[in-house]
Amino acid sequence: MKNILLLLTSILTMSYALPSKAEWFEVTGSASVLTSKSAARSHALEDAAYQAMLFSGADISRLKDLKTFLENDEKHYQFSGSEIRSIEVIKEKKKNGKIYITTRIDIYPSANSCHIGQYKKTFMTSEITIDSPQQAVMGKVYQLGEDLSTVFSRQLDKESQSFVSVGNSHIRIDKRQPDVVKMIADDHGAQYIFSGNITDLSATVEQNLLKKDTINRQFAIEVAVLDGKTGQTVYNNNYREVAQWDFPKTSEVDTQSARFWTSAFGEMVLRVNRDMMLDLENQFACKMTLPQIVSINNNRISMDLGRIHGVKKGDKLELWHTGSFIDQNGLPRNKVSKTEITLTVARVYEQNAELTIDQPQLLNSIQIGDVMHKVDIK
């Protein structure tokens, strides 16, 4: 299953126009022809643009801004106000039910994108559930939710610019229990928890007299993100797509197999999976990443973010005290208050780092559980 995300990767070759600023990429994007050739063409162009943006370090969360334009059947696309300045279609071909489009893409990566100035945020993926298991009878795909959780977690690790996955959990998250959510997030070191439930896997059969029946299958999913500090839901979204089901009605389909993930239906699910990640990038990339003080030993202070999150020696951080209070309605609330204390990263490890306080006389003011925010040094 570890190769799933590699199966649909585009062919990418890079050439440089102006190495210090602009780059151009020759990319071949691909997509299966599902509902129409025009939709497949648009998806192939998206695939090419995504691979070029990912490789160049451009902000992948802005890909959605281009989607409407890529639905037009053009040979040349120009954009303003985007890191992608132009897309030129060099070659198109259709083979074995897929469309391949070779493009030349000009990119001007911005140095001001949020994912460049922020540490990566930690995400935990809870088990994705299937609302109606009876809809999973065709293909016996009862494990699709669990396998999709793993695929999504791995995609965050491999391709996300703003997040680090701390793994996926078989624990089912109840959004009505924020205290439990906070406990689970704390146990996994997660700033956010991603949860989802598949709401539709129904299929329709088009009967044909002269050839085999065509089975079209729905895929709908509702997703939510919960804040690990408060336990509250901070994001909701839902997605729906349909694709041809290439397997016999009575066969059992292994949702961990390459056969499933390279099928028309599997490819569609992976595309939805990528859209989910891009929407999270768009929603959370510019939100504060809040590393936490996890230990204080004499003058040695440790935080829970490290090299994999983008922490570097010499980084400067501001300290915020955390606390809680009871509001006028008797409900517990969390609060943070900014201090004048700053700290400097002295030593970096894979998943944590050691800090020194810039105001040693204020050392006793620092508490385990306090959070910090990276300061941009101009």
TrEMBL record:
The keyword 4Fe-4S does not apply. It comes from Aliivibrio finisterrensis. Keywords: Cell projection, Cilium, Flagellum, Signal. The keyword Protein biosynthesis does not apply. Residues 1-22 form the signal peptide. This is Flagellar basal-body protein. InterPro entries: FlgT_C, FlgT_C_sf, FlgT_M, FlgT_N, FlgT_N_sf. Residues 23-109 form the Flagellar assembly protein T N-terminal domain. Residues 298-374 form the Flagellar assembly protein T C-terminal domain. Residues 113-255 form the Flagellar assembly protein T middle domain. Pfam families: FlgT_C, FlgT_M, FlgT_N. It comes from the Bacteria.
